[in-house]
Prior knowledge:
This protein is an all-alpha fold. Helices cover 80% and strands 0% of the residues. Helix 1 (4-18) packs antiparallel against helix 5 and helix 3 (32-61) packs antiparallel against helix 5.
Amino acid sequence: xxxxxxxxxxxxxxxxxxxxxxxxxxxxxxxxxxxxxxxxxxxxxxxxxxxxxxxxxxxxxxxxxxxxxxxxxxxxxxxxxxxxxxxxxxxxxxxxxxxxxxxxxxxxxxxxxxxxxxxxxxxxxxxxxxxxxxxxxxxxxxxxxx
Length: 146
């Protein structure tokens, strides 16, 4: 027999799984620290690639100046400046990623707790219905030996 409460719970669960659940349910398989570290690492790699692309574009744009002053440029100070800019860029991106992914995990955690609670309720109701359908008869396969 279809119960209205079960239908409501299943609908609520399906809506969550379709929308937020696609990203939040896999997130629940990680500890917070692991999730944040993994995504910070992804962000640092992406920021490094972005920095390299922007640097290549700037070098290409300034190629005329570089070729005219190839012997006049102080490469040591230039390299130190680029390294400093890169370090600041990576630190800012890492810090932003750490904050963003920590907040995302905490928000998702609340939804996952509610989702798991609803799943448990649905499972309990299903077990009650099955028990009623069997009229209290419990079938135990422990005695069967293959």
